[in-house]
Amino acid sequence: MTGSDSIAGNDAIADTGPLTGAQEPAEVEGPIVGPDVIAGDGSTRSVSKPRSGKKHSHRVHSMQVGSSKLGLTLLTASLAMIFLIPLVQMVMTAFKDGDQVVALHPPVYPASIETYTAANGQAYPLYSVPTANGNEVLALETARRTTSTFIDPKTGKEIEWTGNWRGLNAMWYFSPKFDNFGSVLNVLNFPLLFRNTFVVSIVGTIGAVSSAVVVAFGFARFRIPGKNGLFLVLIMTIMLPFQVLLIPQYIAYTEIAWTGTLLPLLVPNFFANAYNVFLLRQYFLTLPRELDEAAQIDGASPLRILWSVIVPQAMPAIIAVSLFHFFFSWNDFFAPLVYLSGHPDLYTMTLGLQAFSATYGNANNGTLTQCAALLAMIVPVVIFFMGQRAFMRGVIISGVEK
């Protein structure tokens, strides 16, 4: 190898050296062919670089993330289905006929047995009957324990069949029974129950929320000596069960002649509930104090700051607390039972349903009780879906500090 050849080889090596920065080649599939290198015998060889694994690792990471999201979605859907099964069962039962509830192998949906009207005008139920010609749809005319008489709807001829007819599968068709709701409304005084429940729920919610807003504002904004200790004592009252205070409260209400009225269910709500105060205080603490100070510079009083500055910004939390208390009052059973017993004209929805269930619990095999419960759920469900966005936002923000 001559000197000039050596110089050329060195130039080739220098020109094809490793690239840096913006000069690095893009990633490609397969091996990357590197620069030519002079071997010991004077020949040149191409050095191959291994394929980059960045794209492969990124693809694996994306698959792992997707699998995690799919697993979480399936788990959430499974839990939701478990909680929804009783509700779906109640809705289905409310529209069923009493005979379907006790029938053997009935469908899940509301249905009735198909019938065949004979020449005499009598309607007979249809069943799938195994015969020598396979399963045939026949009308049961006379049911006996071992031998029953069927009618062939195609020919109108009677057929004697040996076997227990109770083990046969009936021919069902979709048939919801809306008459169940009419029967419930004829027995239950729903307008009275709705009126009493609305009064207790709406008035109680107004009192509970308004008092909780004021108390929470004081704990969140005012500098009071021993404020943290007072707040701790307030929170500790959440652990007191209702039954502990029941007898002293009942004696006090009896002394002032409040039993037998709606006052024990309304007046205590105007003295702030610790749970509502806690949620609202947590939300108020997330609001910037600069807004309060700006309002004070403009001459606003504390009540003006609360009404014009705090309340508009805390509306999601206030709506959440309002819905919490409304649902609690609507579904409360124990307090109305204690204070309203013996006064049917003041019964709330829960007491009315309990009295109806005690009297008509077995009527129509329980379908009427499910109808009454479904009617009682309409108002809470509608209210929740109307305010669910603000409700969920208020729950999340008031429970988690920013």
Task: Explain how this protein is built.
The chain folds into four domains: 37 residues, no CATH class; 36 residues; 56 residues; 212 residues, MetI-like (MetI-like fold). Helix 9 crosses helix 16. The strands form three sheets. Strands 4, 5, 6, 7, 8 and 9 form a six-stranded antiparallel beta sheet that branches. The chain has a two-stranded antiparallel sheet with strand order 1-2. With 402 residues, it is an alpha+beta fold.
Number of strands: 10
Provide the structure class.
alpha+beta
Helix content: 55-70%
Find the CATH superfamily of the largest domain: MetI-like
User: Averaged pLDDT, please?
Assistant: 82
Large-scale geometry: elongated
Which CATH architecture of the largest domain would you pick? Orthogonal Bundle
Q: Low-confidence spans: pLDDT under 50, at least 5 residues?
A: 1-34, 398-402
The overall number of domains is 4
Radius of gyration: 38 Å
**SSE string:** HEEHHEEEEEEEEHHHHHHHHHHHHH
Tally of alpha and pi helices: 16
- Sheet-strand content, in percent, reads 5-15%
Distance between the termini: 76 Å
